[in-house]
Amino acid sequence: MTIPLLGIVQLVGKTVPEAQRFLEQAFTDGGYLVEPQVSVTILQHASRVFYVFGEVNSPGAKELPPGVEAIGILEALTLGGELSRYARRSGISIQPQGLGAETEGIKVDLDALLKGLADPADERYRVRAGDIVFVPERVF
User: Fold this and answer.
1) Residue 50: beta bridge partners?
2) Which of 59, 101, 127, 130 maximizes the CB count within 10 A of its CB?
3) Distance CA 116, CA 76 (A)
4) In the 8-state DSSP scheme, what is residue 125?
């Protein structure tokens, strides 16, 4: 962000009080103000999205609910709309952010989850910002 007198400043990763102290110190160190009082307000949180692709009725970027770091695969698939009639329910994958395309990711068997044969609360089945959920096509 650009602040008058200071120019471009990086506040990424700072809490509101940390950002206020940082800016106050920057104004003081720059010799612009003697005892600055800075107020910082968050107007909009950065969107945190994950992606659902493949055999779903509503593919694309989906936003995580505010204040939530991760959601379960069942909720992620629900946000992607119903599975298409061509979806292979046993080959769904979660590709965590940062893993290259050559990495296979986590495989999910939707039927096993729904029948209680796998634990939907398992950390491996959590979807986070930047992750890709892919529902493959079944072979007839």
Assistant:
1) 62
2) 127
3) 18
4) G
List all residues 6 or more positions away from 18 whose beta carbon is below 8 Å from its beta carbon: none
Phi, psi of 132 (to 5 degrees): -120, 125
Is 128 within 8 Å of 96 (Cβ atoms)? yes
**Cα three-residue angle 105-108-114, rounded to 5 degrees:** 160
How do residues 51-103 score in pLDDT, each as one tens digit?
999 999 999 999 998 888 999 999 999 998 889 999 999 889 999 986 655 56
pTM: 0.66
DSSP class of residue 69? S
Give the closest residue to 120 by CA, choosing from 134, 109, 130, 132: 109
Q: Which residue has the tokens 């979807």?
A: 127
| DSSP string across 7-54 | EE---TT--HHHHHHHHHHHHHHTTS-SS-------S-PPP-EEEEEE
